[in-house]
Amino acid sequence: MGIKFSLAAVVGLILAAYIGVTGAGFYHFFGVTMPYLAIILFLGGVAYRVLNWGRSPVPFRIPTTAGQQKSLPWVKHAKYDNPSTKGQTFVRMALEVLLFRSLFRNTKFEAEEGHRLYYQQEKWLWLAALTFHYCFLVILLRHLRFFTLPVPSFVQGLDRLDGFFQVGLPGIYITDGLFVLAVTYLIIRRLVIPQVRYISLPQDYFPLFLLLAIATTGILTRYIYKVDLIKVKTLAMGLISFHPVVPAGIGTIFFIHFFLVCTLFAYFPFSKLMHAGGIFLSPTRNLPNDNRIRRHVNPWNYPVKVHTYAQYEDHFREKMVEAGLPVDKELEEAPSAPAE
Amino acid sequence: MAKVPKPNELELEHGMPQTGWMDTPTIFRPGNFSYPGKAKNLKVVGLANPREWSPNDADWKLPADWKNILLEGLRERLDKYRTLKVYMDICVRCGACADKCHFYLGSGDPKNMPVLRAELLRSVYRKEFTLAGKIMGKMVGARDLTEDVVKEWFMYFFQCTECRRCSLFCPYGIDTAEFTIIGRELLNLIGCNIDWIAGPVANCYQTGNHLGIQPHAFKDMIDFFVDEIEAVNGIRIEPTFNRKGAEVLFVTPSGDVFADPGTYTLMGYLMLFHEIGLDYTWSTYASEGGNFGFFTSHEMMKRLNSKIYAEAKRLGVKYIIGGECGHMWRVINQYMDTVNGPADFLEVPKSSITGTTFHNAASTKMIHLVEFTADLIKNGKLKLDATRNDHLKVTYHDSCNTARGMGFLDEPRYVLNSVCNNFYEMPPNTIREQTFCCGSGSGLNNDEFMEMRMRGGLPRANAVRHVHEKFGVNALSCICAIDRAALPTLMNYWVPDVTVYGLHELVGNALVMEGETERTTDLRGEPLPGMEDSENEDI
Amino acid sequence: MTLEQHLSKHKEKIVGKWFDLLAGTYPPETVRLFNTQSDPFANPVGHTFRTAIGEIIEEFFGLNRPEALTPLLDKVIRVRAVQRFSPSEALSFVFGLKPIVEEALEEELAEGEAGTEDLREFERKVQGLGLLAFDVYVRCRENLYEIKVEEIKSNTRRLLERAQLIVGE
User: Measured between CA atoms, how close is A226 to chain B, in angstroms?
Assistant: First the structure.
């Protein structure tokens, strides 16, 4: 059900853009209104979500410790798996964010007694996830060439590097291919592994289909229905300088691609894609395990009802005295013990 | 010939109903749930809705406005805990955690996959707290909060041992223990809890320890061990209780005082402290290091934990040493200073024997006995005869709490290697930070839950069996009181030839004490290697 | 060729099918785990089942000694005895062996190389295996009750001992 629904939603979006542009000629809507709307929703939404998360305090310092704690000087400390300072925590987070270290933890490349590799499935998950995210990043950065004038040298460099293998004309980007592969893997994995399929919701399929559609239409604009890049750049520069113009004659496929991207941006803050921001706020990862060294303060710590020693002694005084246990008040000076 | 029946026609129950998890009903049957909290225990600490009921009943006698209570409770906690709030939103359901849970591995029940355990709560959150959930409902994994959902929560939040193994593998660090802890906290608001937790909480609150042992009996028990030690090596130890002005307050789980084999571990403590001449005292008021309040609510954890600092202050000690326990140390390491500190009336722990200052406990002022002992050994302050443990081939079980809530991994191994000659590690993906739970943690080590415990403990037992078969391991050591209570049972069922030892029992075996008579037996009265023929008329 | 020889010819196939039957009593999500995860420590149940089923067949088609079969059956049944199965569900896999073998020998039966008499003899053996499995199951459950009692005792053993000492004096 979730799969069909998500697929239908993406197809619906494509059709909406197609009909909207070719049939109704809503160029302004798809070229100007949508991107502004999307970027407002994206920035506003992300800011809202992050601030909203941040509003909830971190009452306790509960990092998941993944290695030896800071202990006696002669005990080897696993600095980045069980950090005890902010600097070490920063490295842990960097490893987490840049290399998906926890996901990699699943991975074991050792084979035993001629068996297959351990944890094959998880290794692929890590690899696909990493490939996917990095390709996404490179592709995003490459698109900066539409929004900048002159194009920064690092974007040009990236472009050259990515298109290193000059296959065909225009040159094929490596990241395009890898991105499609990785997303396809993530979809297939969700469908064929029963455990993962069982836990999957429509909102797990939808972004994957959306991304696949974005990648496909993007590739189409470049290789099949060649879109006039100069005009696209005019549009992009117009948007970014707040003097939007929609040059005539940009292919429909571009608008479909653009609309899907806008949808992704608009959808982002309201979905699980916010894991991108959430990881930075995850208290089991972003705090050092230094509770015994430095006191962590809980802003809403409140006094609770406790059973004091005095109450305890009142209760047991006679028995304590009889057993030779020291007491604060001797029997004669204390009021008689309350009935049990 | 008659038609051959297909294999699956013979199966009375083939797999599980092919329904989505939301449509799969929760069925309580003997062995998969724990008995509910007794009204009298709830009343002692003022927990909500005390009544007699059973999970088997159709009517759970919930308070009239239970739904409101739960939703308000959830709202309050979303505002109080960033963990909960962030983890509600960011799970991508990648499935990395799915096969990391010992209960899932042992039972095969999909709702024991950590991600689904969290979804039990998330689905309600989506419905009540997100716009998409309100509009799209089930399409976005949202569902109403019904009594059936409450029953499901009760089943699965009390089928999680808060061991955090899943959290280790989660790319965002989502910690299912947070869902379980807060889920249980919510259930407690409407009086749904289990007696194996509520009972110890009530006892601990009023009397000072889980079994409700009164002060004189507590002292009596320790004196009893003093006699036993004297019988083993002729040394008379004189522990003190509630003594003002001692340098150190010692707190350990009460299981060590009453339950075998923790009792032998306790003898090890007594012997060690005596031998080094530590100026320390026991407390009958703070006679429980364990904290089942942690399995009830954050507030209850604080209420029970408060006694440790309060007693340290009253007695005027310099610092505190904590015995071998798992969740006690999770609470001490990650919560105590925050909830009941600052402990500015104490000093930074400094071992009077070695002169070592424990900078890693500069704020809590409480150190783990094993780090204290490791420091003693490192500085050559103990005379140890490891051959006295030569009848044992030892492996070591990392307690989940000290492993993943603290990172206490190498200190116990150092001590272990100093007190015994035959030490074998279990496979790498079952130890240290990847350790498997005993299956009975977080207040689930009750006997009515035995089948689930045996399932949940299977991954651990399986690894023990491996070293048992491969190296002839016959001793499973640990530094956790719940392990000492639960692992013997687990071994009894899965690997009957393996015996469970607390680390300080092995220290006690190996410790050569000043003026001792010739040792012929270990602390259990079993002959030492080479002493099999000697008479042990002392015992 | 005797029935034994026919059987050993199809051994691998029978082992596979019998494992599938056993695994099929778990949810599909779990079956996948049983099948794909080869690390015995990450997949204790699946691994135990796979090795034990092979060993049981080996012994059962071979010497068929009860004293050798008991510990092998124990490996599988000990797990199932603490899972959510009723006793009959826990043990039904044993009898599932009959149709599996019958199916495996389809050709031989059709060509008359193996007779119904052979098959009946085999079914008698399976019945024996079933009874053995029943013994094992009951022992596991007894074990479970014993350890419950044992645990309750050791949780308070010292108190009881102490109490008796006091009473005794």
Answer: 35
Query: Are residue A167 and residue A234 in the same domain, yes or no?
Result: yes
Domain match, A224 and A276 both: yes
Tokens of B261: 């084999």
Residues A184 and A54 in one domain: yes
Query: Rounded to whole angstroms, how far apart are CA atoms A106 and B169?
Result: 7
What tokens were used for C149?
A: 């009692």
How many Å lie between the alpha carbon of B6 and the closest alpha carbon of chain C? 7
Helices (H) and strands (E) in chain B, counts: 23, 7
Residues A296 and A317 in one domain: no
Distance from CA of A280 to the nearest CA of C (A): 30
Together in a domain, A227 and A333: no
Chain B CB contacts of A58 under 8 Å are: 81-83
How far CA A329 is from CA of A202, A334, B241, B313, C91, in Å, comes to: 67, 6, 16, 17, 66
Quick one: pLDDT at residue A170?
A: 66
The burial class, CB within 10 Å (0-12 / 13-18 / 19+), for B277 is exposed
Residue A113 pLDDT level (bands cut at 50, 70, 90): very low
A118: nearest CA in chain C? C39
> Which chain B positions have a beta carbon within 8 Å of C24's beta carbon?
8, 11, 14-15
Residue C132 lies in a domain: yes
* Nearest beta carbon to residue C29 from set A108, A121, A194: A194
Domain total of chain C:
1
Q: Do A195 and C42 touch (CB under 8 A)?
A: no
Mark yes or no for CB contact C31/A194 under 8 Å: yes
Of B401, B193, B213, B404, nearest in space to B300 by CA: B193
Q: Within its chain, how far is the Cα of A75 from the centroid?
A: 35
**A245 and A324 assigned to the same domain:** no
Count of domains in chain A?
2
Chain B, 407 to 426: residues with Cβ < 8 Å from chain A are 407-411, 414
Check: CB of residue B166 under 8 Å from CB of residue B436.
no
Smallest Cα distance from A88 to chain B, Å: 15
Q: Does A103 lie in the same domain as A61?
A: yes
Structural domain range at position C54: 3-141
Q: Which residues of A touch C41 (CB under 8 A)?
A: none
pTM score of the predicted model: 0.90
Residue B432 at interface with chain C, using a CB cutoff of 8 Å = no
DSSP β-ladder status, B319-322 and B280-281: unpaired
Contact B324, B479 (CB under 8 A): yes
Ranges of each domain in chain B:
22-193, 201-510
Query: Could you report the predicted ipTM of this complex, rounded to two decimals?
Result: 0.89
Contact with chain A for residue C39, Cβ under 8 A? yes
- Domain of residue A329 covers 306-340
What size, in residues, is chain C? 169
What are the beta bridge partners of residue A171? none
**B38 close to A (CB below 8 A):** no
Q: Based on the fold, state whether residues A216 and A335 are members of the same structural domain.
A: no
In A98-117, the residues whose Cβ lies within 8 Å of chain B are 100, 102-103, 105-106, 108
Edge to edge, the sheet with strand B475-478 lists B394-396, B475-478, B499-502
Residues of B in contact with C94 (CB under 8 A): none
Distance from CA of B264 to the nearest CA of C (A): 11
User: Hey, are the CB atoms on A294 and B414 less than 8 Å from each other?
Assistant: no
Q: What is the pLDDT of residues A172-198, one digit of tens each?
A: 788 899 999 999 999 998 988 888 888
* 3-state helix vs strand vs coil in chain C, percent to 5: 80, 0, 20
pLDDT tens sequence across B509-531: 999 999 999 999 999 989 988 88
CA angle at residue B215 from B214 to B218, to 5 degrees?
85
Which residues, numbered 166 to 205 in chain A, qualify as contacts with chain C under a Cβ-Cβ cut-off of 8 Å?
193-195, 197-198
